[in-house]
Amino acid sequence: MSNIKLGIIGSGQLGSLLCQAAKKLNIKTVVISDDKQGPAQNYSDEFIFTEYTNQDKMKEFIRKVDIVTYEFENIPIEILKGIDKEKRVIPKPEINQIIQNRKLEKQFINDLGIKTTEWAFVKSFEDIKKNKNLLPGILKINTLGYDGHGQFVLNSLADVKKDWRFSSDYILEKKVNLSKEISIIISRYNKNEFYTYEPIENVHIDQILKRSKIPAVISNEIYKKAQANAKLIADKLEYIGTMCVEYFIDQNNNLLVNEIAPRVHNSGHLTINAFNISQFDNHVRAVCGLSKKQIEKIANAEMENVLGKEIEIYRNKSFSDKEFFFDYKKKVIKEKRKMGHLTTLKE
Ligand code: ADP
Ligand code: MG
What we know:
By secondary structure, the protein is an alpha+beta fold. Helix content is about 25%, strand content about 30%. It has 10 helices and 18 strands. The protein has helices spanning about 15-25, 55-65, 75-85, 95-100, 100-110, 125-130, 220-235, 270-275, 280-285, 310-315; strands at about 5-10, 30-35, 45-50, 65-70, 90, 120, 135-140, 150-155, 170-175, 180-190, 195, 200-205, 210-215, 240-250, 255-260, 300-305, 325, 340-345. Helix 1 packs across helix 9 and helix 3 (about 75-85) runs antiparallel to helix 4 (about 95-100). The mean pLDDT is about 95. Adenosine-5'-diphosphate binds next to strand 7, strand 10 and strand 15.
């Protein structure tokens, strides 16, 4: 029996799956969220609904928990640092500070000698003009982007709209001629204890993850390099918990880091059924200071995200014993919203 109370910031499907992993370990969970309908409240022991800036509610949350983690990285850094003064936030806020800022994230990765897409930091149309060698490219808001939000495809300078005011900072990234996308999920307990899951092959449609599978169809060289890069990144960050490194493989077989997610990740959902210890189990164990278990693969797998209205079809389907359907129980169906997923185990 453990007496740990784990605080989780954010109440979406990742929070839900973290709560379920904690429950198996008898770890109590308190979820704090600014979404009144957040589905994680169906699985947490306690739920606090509030704006994150509400000091009283935040104090209540801090009082109730022993350790704090989060399901998404776009939490204002001052809030994370404030919590960390009272109760430890893991992964530590300094990590978040780097990763929630695309410029700092890319600089950090490049400084490790790891390739990313070619990029430039831009604040104005003039800056884009100076970097027109990066076109066709993608303009990405420097902070607070997710699932393609805050991204604009620029095929040429003519695509820069006249009324754009550049009120935010941006990164301009050269558009990569993709051969495929893969990700590495790594769970790190400390310097000597970690587990790197095998590469996962991902298909995005309209910038949103649609499908993931293992094994990824890639060369042995890319397999090893992707894992080694993720290990190097996690070590340099002194990361504790589960994180994800998203990669692009271009037509010339270059392996480029797209971005890091300092949290459990959608592409790792298949680890719930394909491994004895999932990315969520590993995250909860690592942040709560439990020991690492022997990790074994059970089967190959494919995961399909269920987006928007597709959920209505899935809710009425029956499934085989190789199929595992997860309904996130979101109250409102919105176009392209992640509503659930289906993992199918393979030979
Ligand atoms: P988010 O932070 O919203 O996840 P990403 O930067 O990971 O945004 O982009 C989402 C998806 O858009 C990627 O997984 C990829 O499919 C596509 N994409 C993003 N940047 C590029 C790029 N420079 N070249 C080609 N495709 C890209
Ligand atoms: Mg991404």
